[in-house]
Amino acid sequence: MRAPIVVPAGPMPVLVGLDIGTTSTIGVLIRPDGATLATESRPVHLHADRPGWAEEEPEEWWANACAILRLLAARAADAGHPIAAVGVTGMLPAVVLLDADGRPIRRSIQQSDARAFVEVEEMRRSVDAAAFFARTGCGINQQLVAPTLRWLARHEPGTMARVATVLGSYDFVTGRLAGVRTVELNWALESGLMLLGERRFADDLLALGGVTRAQLPDIRAAHDVVGTVTASAAAATGLREGTPVIAGVADHAASTFAAGVVEEGDVLLKFGGSGDIMVATRAPVGDARLYNDVHVVPGLFMPNGCMAASGAALNWLAATIAAGLPCGEGQTVHQALDALAAATPPGADGLVFLPYLLGEKTPLHDPEARGVLLGLGLHHRTGHLWRAALEGIAFGFRHHLQVFAEAGLRAERFRASDGGARSRVWMQIVADVIQRPIQLLEGHPGSALGAAFVAGIAVGVFDGWDQVARFVRPGDTIRPDPRTASTYDRLYGVYREAYERLRTLFPRLAG
User: Fold this and answer.
1) Residues 6 or more apart from 185 whose CB is under 8 A from it?
2) Alpha carbon distances (Å) from 446 to 208, 240, 422, 426
3) Partner of 138 at 20 to 30 A CA spacing, among 112, 122, 413, 475?
4) Which residues sit opposite 28 in a β-bridge?
């Protein structure tokens, strides 16, 4: 039953958005007039205990959420603003397994996890890929939930025997807040367990993962109010008991919408733990190399690509080479590395980086791919390594744009969001590699803002999706330097050919 919607009367209400991200949990408090009153964040630990693994602790997400929400609730109270609703966003399709009491049974298996490559291949051999895509809108790849569940059944049968509920990252936190178990539409869509045209789980698709309909919650649209903050959640978070909670939003959909990507041909380059590229369209894409998602705005779709390791690859490299790196006063390690990269010529003196540290998702769908530094010589220094990594991820975006063109998708206006977009060095490299201007956004909180806005739509604080424009503040436009075009054309060819030549070796590295 739909929970009653109660918008506080009196002073201007505010909205809370919470982003359950791969590298951090972020909360934002917004006012309907376009003001951002506060942002808070807490780090998240990504566990990679074995090659290709990516896991996180759901209880860490909840602890972060409680700490952040207490601060935001206090800030709202101090300013005299009642909180009208809460929306949670997060990465997908992370796999969270709950027991009958709603407790996580094990760490989540993240969307970037590549352990189930054997199960993916088994599924490719046993399932008609074209028919599967026609029914689900999904290609057969490591992003699907069924291969992950089959891996668990094979390697952790005791875990699977205890599973009462399978859901996603933001579904888990939403459930803790409102005492419900639901999954948001885009998690269901990317899971490969849902029929695209009917928006329901199919028994034969669920059987591919060895689960039943009883173990999957109801599918809800992002802007559905699924419940209200419970008494126990209110005590833990400082939120008012009874505050409406929406179903939640996929992080890339929330970020895309909040960046003002709402017209066909608009493109968002999202620089988070993974590298995402999304385009607004009127219809789903018919190319299995890409992912199909629904846009936040009803009636729009959001075909997209996702590189498994973007910011995560850079964070790994920064941590690996940071020892002894001189940083200026107030300068982060990443900024110090950017300064070295800026002093390094385009093309990093012939060094090419394949950023496949967690395998690769779109458009390769190769969980056994691995990271490569190609062309390494004694003349290369730290700046070369960092610049090559920045360029390698930019080449990944260019690869996706090539696939977009082959799929008939219009990609015309480019915006950049999330943490990596703060690096002017990196944004210049991306603009040069794709040879397109990139619009930066000022003071943009990313996915959390999108979740807060959708919560506002759900409870009537906003009366139109176009009102998100109040929060979109264009910054500088980064224009490509035509002098770099020939260098990047040549090295992009090396980047693409290197994977094709090495891909048969990657499985041998795994033994």
Assistant:
1) 199, 219, 220, 221, 222, 247, 294
2) 35, 25, 12, 18
3) 413
4) 17, 39
| 301: Cα separation from own chain's centroid | 16
| 198 Cβ contact list (under 8 Å, min separation 6) | none
Task: Give me the pLDDT at residue 309, please.
Answer: 83
Instruction: Identify residue 388 by its one-letter amino acid code.
Output: A
The SS3 of residue 178 is: helix
Question: Which residue, 235, 276, 261, is CA-closest to 111?
Answer: 276
Residues 155-207 have pLDDT tens digits of: 999 999 999 999 999 999 999 999 999 999 999 999 999 999 899 999 999 99
Measured CA distances, 496 to 33, 49, 363 (Å): 46, 29, 12
Nearest CA-CA partner of 228 in 430, 12, 2, 427: 2
DSSP state, residue 11: S
Structure tokens at 27: 């909360």
CB atoms < 10 A from the CB of 161, how many? 9
pLDDT in tens, 381-427: 999 999 999 999 999 999 999 999 999 999 999 999 888 999 999 99
What are phi and psi for residue 336, nearest 5 degrees? -65, -40
What's the whole-model pTM score? 0.85
Average pLDDT, the chain: 93
* Bridge partners (DSSP) listed for residue 441: 474
Burial of 497 (0-12, 13-18, 19+ CB in 10 A): exposed
| % pLDDT > 70, the chain | 97
- In the predicted model, residues of the chain with pLDDT beneath 70 are 1-10, 445, 511
Give the integer Cα–Cα distance in Å for 380 and 372: 15
Domain architecture of the chain: domains with CATH: 266-308+404-480 (3.30.420.40), 311-395+483-509 (3.30.420.40)
Q: Which of 9, 74, 34 is nearest to 442 (CA)?
A: 34
Name, in order, each residue with C-beta under 8 angstroms of 435's C-beta and a sequence gap of 6 or more. 480, 482, 485, 488
DSSP alpha helix (H) spans, 225-332: 231-237, 251-258, 311-321
The letter for the amino acid at 208 is: L
Q: How far is CA 33 from CA 17, 40, 134, 462, in A?
A: 16, 20, 43, 10
* Kind and range of the H or E run holding 148: helix 145-155
Q: How far is CA 420 from CA 180, 212, 269, 334, 363, in A?
A: 34, 40, 10, 10, 21
Phi first, then psi: what are they for 243, rounded to 5°? -65, 130
How buried is residue 43: exposed, middle or buried, by Cβ count under 10 Å (0-12/13-18/19+)? exposed
